[in-house]
């Protein structure tokens, strides 16, 4: 996957198997970086990978 790929909230929901509210909670708490383009929220693919890595390290 390329680092410049931007994912939608539904994309992130599917990848992390989380609900919409949880994804927005992660964005709001700044645990998952995002950008807003107009009225659309986009999450960089690298941010999702980094989130997964951080969660795995915290669980270890």
From TrEMBL:
InterPro entries tied to this protein: HTH_17, SinI_DNA-bd
Organism phylogeny: Bacteria, Bacillati, Actinomycetota, Actinomycetes, Kitasatosporales
Native organism: Streptomyces ruber
Annotated GO MF terms: DNA binding
Name this protein carries in UniProt: Helix-turn-helix domain-containing protein
Residue ranges occupied by any Helix-turn-helix domain in the UniProt entry: 6-54
């Amino acid at each position: 996957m390329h680092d410049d790929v931007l994912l939608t909230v539904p994309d992130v929901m599917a990848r992390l198997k989380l609900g919409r509210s949880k994804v927005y909670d992660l964005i709001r708490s700044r645990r998952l970086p995002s950008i807003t383009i107009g009225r659309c929220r986009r999450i960089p693919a690298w941010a999702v990978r980094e989130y997964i890595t951080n969660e795995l390290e915290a669980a270890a």
